[in-house]
Structure formats: C-alpha cells, structure tokens
Amino acid sequence: DDSGRVVIWNMAPVVSEEKEIDENCPKMLCQMDNHQACVNSVRWSYSGKLLASGGDDKLIMVWSVARYPGG
C-alpha cells in the first residue's frame, strides 16, 4: 500500500522534451514512506529546504530536502 507515500518529482522532464527523453535525467527525485495512512497535504517552506506533510495518521512530518547533484 502506497497511501502513506510522499514523492518528489523532477519538473525538468515536464517542461523540456529534451530532458523527458534523456535516460540520465531522473524523473522521481525522492520517495518517503513514513506515514502510516493517506497523506492529505504537503507544503514547501519559503526557503524550499523543508517539506511538511500531514495525513490521516494524525502526524505532521517535516522533511529536510537536499538538492541532488546536477539539479
């Protein structure tokens, strides 16, 4: 069951056909599976370095996000 999953997708392949067909360009950047129930809300911090997620498990998780090389 993937209902507690938070996924960060790379937007470059969405806006660039060249990146879309580039097999070396990652499509999914990160997957976090710590929630035990459906995730209902996600929000980025103003700095873009933190991501908060909340769900039916009544938990709010704050994730520290690092840039991947080349991203």
Concise account of the structure shown:
WD repeats lie at residues 32-65. By secondary structure, the protein is mostly beta strands.
Q: How does this model look, in words?
A:
The protein is mostly beta strands and 71 residues long. It has one domain. The chain is 13% helix and 37% strand. The chain has 2 helices and 5 strands, in the order βααββββ. The strands form 2 sheets. It has a 3-stranded antiparallel beta sheet with strand order 3-4-5, with no helix packed on it. Strands 1-2 form a two-stranded antiparallel sheet. A hairpin with a 4-residue loop joins β4 (50-55) and β5. The mean pLDDT is 88.
List the helices and strands and how they pair.
Elements: E1 6-9, H1 12-15, H2 17-21, E2 28-32, E3 39-44, E4 50-55, E5 60-64
Antiparallel strand pairs: 1-2, 3-4, 4-5
Determine the number of helices (DSSP H or I, runs of at least 4 residues). Answer: 2
Order of helices and strands: EHHEEEE
The percentage of residues in β strands lies in: 35-45%
- Give the low-pLDDT segments: none
Major pleated sheet = 3 strands, antiparallel
Query: What is the 3D shape?
Result: globular
Helix percentage: 10-25%
Task: Note the quaternary state here.
Answer: single chain
Radius of gyration: 14 Å
Instruction: Compute the average pLDDT.
Output: 88
Q: N-to-C terminal Cα separation, in Å? A: 29 Å
Descriptive tags:
71 residues, 37% strand, HIR1-like, nucleosome binding, WD repeat, WD40_rpt, mainly beta, two-stranded antiparallel ribbon
